[in-house]
């Protein structure tokens, strides 16, 4: 969801492909993410990027306007802290 939000905030068009994560993963997914073999995977110019936080950083650096993170280093670090907290604490709690 994080990648979809970043793309929407940037106003970027994209093609989304659904994956059958339980019945058989596609060859595209397996070759694009051979280590973890999971989504999300973002393909740009034929190059795969994996893991939502990495993908969002790439999107923000590749298409700088509008910026996804605040302008000061302190505020950016706070935003990253809360994103990490949500990943490690909140989402873990919700999946129990």
UniProtKB/TrEMBL annotation:
It catalyses: RX + glutathione = an S-substituted glutathione + a halide anion + H(+). Keywords: Cytoplasm, Transferase. Its EC number is 2.5.1.18. The keyword Transferase applies. It holds the Pfam family GST_N. Coiled coil: none annotated. GO terms for molecular function: glutathione transferase activity. Its main location: cytoplasm. Residues 1-67 form the GST N-terminal domain. GO terms for cellular component: cytosol. It is found in: Cytoplasm, Cytosol. It is an enzyme of class 2 (transferase). The keyword Transferase applies. One of its GO terms (biological process) is glutathione metabolic process. Is involved in the conjugation of reduced glutathione to a wide number of exogenous and endogenous hydrophobic electrophiles. Belongs to the GST superfamily. This is Glutathione S-transferase. It comes from Linum tenue.
